C-alpha cells in the first residue's frame, strides 16, 4: 500500500524528540498457549474454549491412572452459570445439526460403537452422538436425523465397557464419522445444568469394522492452535472471530494492529485495544510514563461507513504506587483513504488547566458505541507507530519558559487569521482541529507575522503550534 503523509518542511528547524511507547509499532506479538486436546486424525472442539475464556478453568481434561490416559468431561461453575462439558472429534454443529470435520473411515460395516465409561449425571442427562457423513453431508438413516445417532446417558456407572448399537446399516458412501460426548444435554437444553455431572471416557472403537477411531484411546494430547496477542497491549481475546489481528498492512515496519467491529450473536462486538494493563478487578493500570513528553502521535487508517473510531486518553497522577485519574480526552477517528497522522499536544491541555499527570493509558476502539450511537458491523481500524514526543527535544523547564500564546487576529474569524510574534521568527507550525487531528503544516522564515486561511475548513476551534528558533508558541482560533 502506498503510504501518504502530509509533507514536513523542516528547513533548519530540529525534529521533535520521540519516545516509542513499548511495542507502539506493533512489531512484537506474543504466543499464548491455550490447552491440550487429544491428538487424532480429526479436528477437535471442546467446552474448554468457553470455560477458559470465562474464568481460566478447564472442564475437559486429561486424567491418568497407572499410566493409562483418559478424558474427563465435567460441568463446572463459570463466572455466572454452570458451564456444561463437551468434547467433539469434529467441530460444533450447524443449526441443522451437521458437524464439520470428523474421523476418516473406510470400512462401513460397523454395527455400533463401544467405549469404556465412568459417569455420574446427577439426575440429569448427558449424551453420546455419532454422525456419519460423506464429506460434510450426513448420509444414511439414524435415530436423530440423517446419518445421526443420539444416545442419552443418565444415572451413574462405574468403569465399564459400554456398547451403543446402530439401528440401521451405515450408508456405503459414508467416509467420515463424528463422535460428540457431553456431560449435559446441550441439544435439548437441559437447564439448569448440574454442577459436578461428569463422564470419563476411554478406548472408543467401532464394532464390526476394520476402521479405527484415531485418538479414541486418549493417550496422546497436544496443544490446540495458539493465539497471538500484541506485546504490552491488552486486547479482548475471543477463541473464534477475533476482533483484532496482526496485519501486514502497516504504515511502517512489518505489522500493524487491526481492530474490527464484528457482528456476533445479533450484537456488534467492537474491536478494542488498551495501551496499558488490566488489573484483577478489570480496571486500567497505566503503564505509559510521561516523563517530559508532551505530544502523543500515532498513525491510523479507518475503513468504515457511517461510523467513527475512537482513541481515548486517560491521564493519571501516581502517588505511592497508586494511580488517580486526573484528565480524559477522546479523539474521534473518521474514515480516510490511507494512513493519517494524529498528533495531540496534551502538554498544553494539562498545563493550561494546571493538571499534574505522571502516566497515561490509551484505549482504541474500532467503533464509538453509546446509548444513542450504534456500532457498525465491518468497521476496520488500523493502527501503527504510537509514540510520545517532546517538541524540539527541549527540557521541561525550557519548554515551560518558552511556551507562549501568540497574538492572533481577527479571532474569531471567517477565514484569514494573522499571528504576530512581536519579533522575527523562523520555523514551522502545525494546525489541529478540535478532535486533535492535524489538518495542516506550514513553514515560515524570518518574519514577525504569519497568515493562515481557515476559510476552507469547517467551523470549530483550531489549535496552532509554532516551533521556531526561540522555543514553542501556541494559539487557539475560533473559525465561525
TrEMBL record:
Question: Span of the secretion signal?
Answer: 1-19
Superkingdom of origin organism: Bacteria
Q: Does the keyword Signal apply?
A: yes
What keywords would UniProt list here? Signal
Name this protein carries in UniProt:
T9SS type A sorting domain-containing protein
Species name: Cryomorpha ignava
